Amino acid sequence: MTTTNAMTTTNAMTTTNAMITTNAVTATTALTTTPAAAAPARTANRIRPLALGGAQVEALVVRDAEDFPVEGRTIVVNAGAHPALLAGTPRTVIPPLASTVLVDATVARAELLVLVRVREQRPAAVILAEPGWARLADLLPGFPRDTPLWRGPQDDLGAVELDPARLLGGSRSTERPREFGVRVNLWFAPAGTDCGLHDRHPFLEVHTQVQGTGRMQTFRAEDHATLRQDVLMSPGHTHDPFCDLGPDGAFRYPWHQYRADTDSLWLAVEYHARQS
Predict the structure, then answer these.
(1) pTM of the predicted model, to two decimals?
(2) Which contiguous run of DSSP H or E holds residue 137?
(3) How far is 252 from 115, CA to CA, in rounded Å?
């Protein structure tokens, strides 16, 4: 991806102004003025636009948010391992791997945020004409060509440290958190699409609805008649992780799929274990 350098360009700051205030942009600019010989220091509100495939959806990643202002109506995903604290009363948090919709609000503290907003209320399908979008059947050998599912380009958010056993609600915990690389991309499917039952991922994933409505579903077997969970997805909602940990530490998934009730655009957030 070419978006890493975007943090220091004028164009990138112009993009981020749509969702943040001048103070937050000033914090970003400070990254370029630190003397090279200075000792490494934690910098608040490190902001970078995300390349998710099109001008219709505006997306940013924010690291080490402190008193970070969010202007307008924005989907805010906590992609970090710790609760994100909102400013004001009553005390409100966004749990890890969860999201909410904020309107002219301030995030008091957060490790890693993804901010998403649809710039224009146009049909979700228009994003397919943007660069980097491809039909999954063209990317994944053997995927059914009669399933109309498209994937946008993937962007890398960097690394977080998390304890998957604790995060998934297990009673046991690893000795120390492990490092995971976080990747995000958008998906699109038209109304009425069953996106395909599957039960294997070498990573932890959650999904956030961006435009339209759909549902994340789990099944007892590879059969649509064995539906177990039917999680309704509206813009701004992120489902809980569906997996648990096996004895070998690998993620175990039930049969699951996304189903689009309307033309739908949703965000995938993936956590890939890095070698220690």
Answers:
(1) 0.85
(2) helix 136-139
(3) 29
